Amino acid sequence: MDEKKDVLILAVESSCDETAAAVVKNGREVLSNIISSQIALHTLYGGVVPEIASRKHIEKINQVIETALAEAGVTLIDIDAVGVTYGPGLVGALLVGVAEAKAIAYAAKKPLIGVHHIEGHIAANYIEHKELEPPFLCLVVSGGHTHLVRVEDYGRFKILGRTRDDAAGEAFDKVARAIGLGYPGGPKIDKVSKEGDPDAVLFPRAHVGDSPYDFSFSGVKSAVLNYINGCRMKGEEWNQADVAASFQKAVTDVLVENAMHAVREYGAEKFAIAGGVAANSALRGAMKEACEKQGIDFYYPSPVYCTDNAAMIGAAAYYEYLSGTRHGWDLNAVPNLKLGER
Ligand code: KG4
Ligand code: ZN
Predict the structure, then answer these.
(1) Which ligand is nearest to the CA of 276?
(2) What is the pLDDT of residue 3?
(3) Which positions ≥6 away from 154 have C-beta within 8 Å?
């Protein structure tokens, strides 16, 4: 009998401010997941400084990969392929991971698989939900992206909607800075909102006229700034937790509303969230409730698989591996890579 061999992927992720490597078995079993975060470093500057990010990736990447292999208890000989994020992201940051992955794959004579960062975020859902298979709808909300996607098959996507301006995470980060919470904004707003009243201030829920699935977050961000400036000019006090909670509610309301519109329109039976903002407790709660109301299954990754990590890249690379995707030694970083592009 033909015994099915396990497939081990060594995955590398360096598209923004996390240097990460992981070993993933058969796309769903994480043998190791190492993340070296630069958050503390960038906090000094109030946001990610691309040049510093690239330098730090170079410093950390070898050690992160070695630890990932050691923790998984494997060597490069055991690995079947090397997967790496090659876009979208910061070009200098991406280049570090791509160059490293190419060098390892070449030296170890293993196939190289370039992975789209958003495909990775979506695949994060496969890790803890062994039963989840396409088709399903997925809302990808991160620092750089806000996409409502129909996952038609592994590696096959249809983008239903996207943001017209700021990404959801970007809005969290900018508002956090404006209300004095600092960087990284998302987790801080999430935390302080628990002590605030989400109905204290009514911020606008933007709808993009010609597309029910597109998003816009620059308006709500400006509304928060105007509210605070208005209070300051009138010499009135404003409550940080109330503003944070009200802003968070305005964003999650729109995300839930547009997502459920798509669920009904497409007759989806499964709905997933992904990306850094998917770690937000209010969004998780609201989506869960909305999916229950629709009578559909709701999937979300643990917070560690929501924010940038390499395990999700390993999960996506596995399905690309199965479908025959192989990249050459000319693979380059593509900062504005489109989803579904090869
Ligand atoms: O996916 P990710 O790690 O990187 C990108 O691909 O962009 O997402 C980072 C974003 C940041 O904007 C961060 O503020 C946001 O995700 N984020 C959160 C939470 N945790 C991270 N936003 C809201 N609530 C959270 N708990
Ligand atoms: Zn990301």
Answers:
(1) 1
(2) 64
(3) 134, 319, 320, 322, 323
Q: Measured in angstroms, how far is the CA atom of residue 135 from the centroid of ligand 2?
A: 22
DSSP 248-272: HHHHHHHHHHHHHHHHHHHT-SEEE
**HSE-up of residue 72 (Cα within 13 Å, Cβ side):** 28
For atom 14 of ligand 1, the residue with the nearest CA is: 186
Query: What pLDDT is stored for residue 159 in this prediction?
Result: 96
Do residues 96 and 61 touch, judged by C-beta distance below 8 A?
A: yes
Ligand 1: lining residues by beta carbon, under 6 Å: 16, 142-144, 169, 172-173, 184-187, 190, 275-277, 279-280, 307-308
Per-residue pLDDT tens digits for 316-340: 999 999 999 999 999 999 999 999 7
Instruction: Tell me the pLDDT of the chain averaged across its residues.
Output: 96
pLDDT over 90, % of the chain: 92
Q: What one-letter code names the amino acid at 160?
A: L
Strand, coil or helix: what is 62? Answer: helix
Would you say 45 and 77 are in contact if contact means Cβ atoms under 8 Å apart?
no
Ligand 1 pocket mutation pick from 121, 177, 307 by most atoms within 8 angstroms of CB: 307
pTM for the model = 0.96
Q: Locate all alpha helices (DSSP H) within 211-330, ordered by sequence.
A: 218-233, 240-266, 281-294, 303-306, 311-322
Q: How far apart are the CA of 1 and the centre of ligand 1, in A?
A: 47
Task: Read off the pLDDT of residues 83-138 as tens digits, 9 standing for 90 and up.
Answer: 999 999 999 999 999 999 999 999 999 999 999 999 999 999 999 999 999 999 99
Tell which atom from ligand 1 comes closest to the C-alpha of 15. Answer: 6
Spell out a b/e string for 74-110, using b for 16 or more CB atoms within 10 Å of the CB, else e. beeeebbbbbbbbbbbbbbbbbbbbbbbbebbeeeeb
Beta bridge partners of 10: 23, 82
Give the distance from CA 326 to its chain's centroid.
24
